[in-house]
Amino acid sequence: MRLPWDGPNHSYIDVPKAEALLYRAIDAGVNYFDTAWPYHGQKGVFDPGESEPFLGRALTPEMRKKVYIATKLPIWAVKDQSEMDAILDAQLSRLRTDCIDFYLVHGLVAYFWRAESKLRYFDFLARAKKDGRIRHVGFSFHDEFSIFAELLDAFDWEFVQLQYNYVDKEFQAGEAGMKRAAEKNVGVIIMEPLRGGSLVRDLPPKAEQLFKHAHPDWNMAEWGLRWLWNQPEITTVLSGMSNMEQVEDNIRIAENGCPGNLRDDDLRTVEKVGEVFNSGMKIGCTGCGYCMPCPHGVDIPRNFSFFNTYHLFDNIGTRRQTQHFYSTQMPRDKIAAHCVGCGLCVDKCPQHLPVATLMPQVADLFASNR
After folding, report:
1. Sign (positive/negative) of CA torsion 196, 178, 76, 55?
2. Looking at CB atoms within 10 Å, which of 73, 82, 99, 204 has the fewest?
3. Sheet of strand 134-141, all strands in order from the earlier edge strand to the far edge
């Protein structure tokens, strides 16, 4: 859940606003809520954040009966099963529930798949399901399709969570992974359906024109979500709503979200837009924020967003405007020039971006405007 925040950083959840979004969503029939151990935390992925406690406090007993809670085991933060048990028990307490409906191993990549023989998290998951602390077992994934295929066949998974959208069809597990899971009757949960919002706010004019010509009454989010809901293999889409306007818009769009809601010419339009978008994207950052906080203060996702925006729009006026916005809107203590190449962010990045190598390119591009 990408909750609204009010404070010096995103760990300070704006509780009244967040509760209003949650309750409106539940009233409209939204019943799957995805959270995790580190979400809305101050100190990065190793420390517990505020998302789980918020959800636990906000859900009344009657609401809890209507919804499914999904949270995740931070596999990078545990050394043995005793630590897995301790974290799961803490999550049950934080969420104020005696059972988690959908429990995922968080962010599986090749390293943690190869470490299963040592960590034995398969045994832990089977035991936690048997003793009733979790109902359904899955994993979220950030690696290549070949690793995904191995992992999918290695355990009795009930669902998977994949990054997938009309730009990332061949990224990580991608479309092939989505279809492989569906063939095995494994539920498919989609994350980053709008690529951290970049498929709404960062589309180049040519792409927007293609969409508007096809359906003038659809917004950019509608195209991205309808494209996913058009695919029968997909079970659930995590749309990451963070304000009431997005909640209402998602509810409206979902009323038509089903397989077959797009025509063949609509699908061709989406394919053309994906080609336009990918042709200008220099850095594959989704803005997930897993790399944060940077020990040297660099706002990594925002720096990459400015860099991509500059290259997406191929006209001198927009590029000059982007450079101006960077110089006026980026706090001086968060600019790319402060990157020292320590590399701590690289291991955290689900996209495996060489952040320490890329950041100097951002610094060089915008240096003349500081």
Report:
1. positive
2. 82
3. 32-34, 68-73, 100-108, 134-141, 159-163, 187-191, 236-237
Spatial contact of 169 and 276, defined as CB atoms under 8 Å apart:
no
Q: What is the pTM of this model?
A: 0.79
Q: Rounded to an integer, what distance in angstroms lies between the CA atom of residue 284 and that of residue 358?
A: 11
Would you write out the chain's pLDDT as a tens digit for each of its 370 residues? 678 888 777 778 899 999 999 999 999 999 999 999 999 887 766 788 899 999 999 999 999 999 999 999 999 999 999 999 999 999 999 999 999 999 999 989 888 899 999 999 999 999 999 999 999 999 999 888 999 999 999 999 999 999 899 988 888 899 999 999 999 999 999 998 998 787 888 788 889 999 999 999 999 999 999 999 999 999 999 988 889 999 999 999 998 889 999 999 999 999 999 988 877 777 878 777 888 889 999 999 888 878 877 876 666 766 776 787 788 778 888 899 999 999 889 888 887 889 988 999 999 988 865 4
Q: Collapsing DSSP states into helix, strand and coil, what is residue 138? A: strand
Cα separation of 342 and 345, whole Å? 8
User: What number of other Cβ atoms are within 10 A of residue 26's Cβ?
Assistant: 18
